[in-house]
Sequence to fold (441 residues):
Amino acid sequence: MTTTRFAPSPTGYIHVGNLRTALMNYLIARKAGGTFILRIDDTDPERSKEEYVDAIKQDMEWLGLHWDKVERQSERLDRYAEAADKLREMGRFYEAFETPTELDLKRKKQLNMGKPPVYDRAALNLSDAEKEALRAERGNGVWRFKLDHERIEWTDGILGDISIDASSVSDPVLIRGDGQVLYTIASVVDDTEMGVTDVVRGSDHVTNTATQIQIIEALGGTCPRFAHHSLLTGPQGEALSKRLGTLALRDLREQGVQPMALLSLMARLGSSDPVELRSDMAELIEGFDIHRFGAAPTKFDVQDLFPLTARHLQSLPLADVADAVADAGVPAELAEPFWAMARENITTLADLKGWWELCRDGAEPLIDEEDREFIAAAVALLPEGPFNGETWGEWTKAVKEATGRKGKGLFMPLRKALTGMERGPEMASLLPLLQVIRARG
Ligand code: GLU
Fold:
């Protein structure tokens, strides 16, 4: 059975880059009728915060990315210790004592000699007595996984055939000197024990994947299918990593972005299929294919979310936005005609408030000098209330007959006088909602 996972580290709020990972894994699981796990990668007790765990769940719920199970790495430390023991017994695990400064120096030397900065495995030559001495001097060493120096190959769901020479990669540190288990082994143990069949993550994890494949094989597990999506850049191709902090999902929510707009964009951005606004999750699932995504960096422009949000809102019935309409101050008996009028004229739901204020309070009229007489004549012809959808047509017909004006010369001055703006909603829908006029009529 298809099982995928989204595995954020709760060290911050999740952003559009994380969403790409979450969504792809979610869609794969749902399309296959499989299981989607939310895995909290909280092996780092200093940086992991409970408030971020809650925030990640809230953000996922807001988007409707429902998970079938939550797993927490901090509750599985004994499983990782067991795996570490197994690797130790197999002779695939060794203790190394270099300080970060020493490692840095080694790397610099290698680079100077034109060699790749790969850990030289000096620790493998330490005698037991030397290790003992180093331990006494520096405390426990880190534990590195001894890679088999062969080519590591897999067919990536996005990148295609990958082949990495293991000797070009440093033996990964899986356990720190203070005993903290690192993500690389924790992830492997989880993926294996939880039966994860498909792993989609950012292309910054490609080297991790190579080493994880060897660790999975050493532990006797089955490798999942891997796919690595390209990293997001800004609209001009600039690195987004520094700005991702401002592209947290909660900020987008705050700015009024609608979940379906965000999901529709992210489910297609960077693929060979066009971005299409989808009306629900079922359509997104149906239209998703991981193999259509490309390896090239993907440009993301937050501004693209607003036209999609506007179009999504336009498609909604009142029932879906009733709370927002009420929050804007619209009385329940006017909610239906108000929404019909306003929905074509908003970008986000926050814009409802302005339209309601116009309805409720009217606007400072905008009347050009040459229209003064015309407006006075029109006001005199305003029909008696109650107003309805026909009123505008009847009124402007009467004004046209009385003044001889037509077309733009007839409608624009009336619009400007009533709304203080040159553009806006259909006047026929707006007029019956203008409370000042209603009170007068
Ligand atoms: N916690 C890891 C990260 O956020 C998970 C990577 C993975 O999907 O394996 O980068």
